Amino acid sequence: MSVSDELKAKRGELAERIRDLTAELADVQAQMAAVDTVIAIYEPEWKPEQPQKRRSRPPKAESIKELDKIIGGTNKRQMTLDILRTATRPMSTAECAAEFATRHGLSENDPRVTVIGNRLSSILDALQKAGRVRHAGMLDGHRKQWEIAA
After folding, report:
1. Which of 64, 103, 135, 145 is the most buried (most CB within 10 A)?
2. CA–CA separation, 107 vs 71, rounded Å?
3. pTM of the model
4. Cα three-residue angle 91-95-101, rounded to 5 degrees
5. Element (H or E) spanning 148, and its range?
């Protein structure tokens, strides 16, 4: 196993730990909210203390920087066309983003897929203006379906 394979395995372990800790944090926060609700029944004037907000870069900005490292060198326009070309049916922007993420080793549930979708949206609009892709209907009445223009 190469060094890069070992590092990728370690990164996968750390990502799994982050998911576990995030789930545990959400559980503890839900329990604390329930306790706060019960306290308010006995003491209606009581207000829970608000945690001090830290001044730091938002976590979203960090994940976007990490995403740029992963997909920054990719020809997004060409890959978007390839995704639509190999699709068996028209795809929504979100589906294109999920496939784009999968091709870069990210899971479809990765929160950064939304950022990829935002970027692909403008790429798809530009491709439509260039006559390379077209709308193939709407999904849920508001999400565009895309396909290669014949």
Report:
1. 145
2. 14
3. 0.55
4. 135
5. strand 143-148
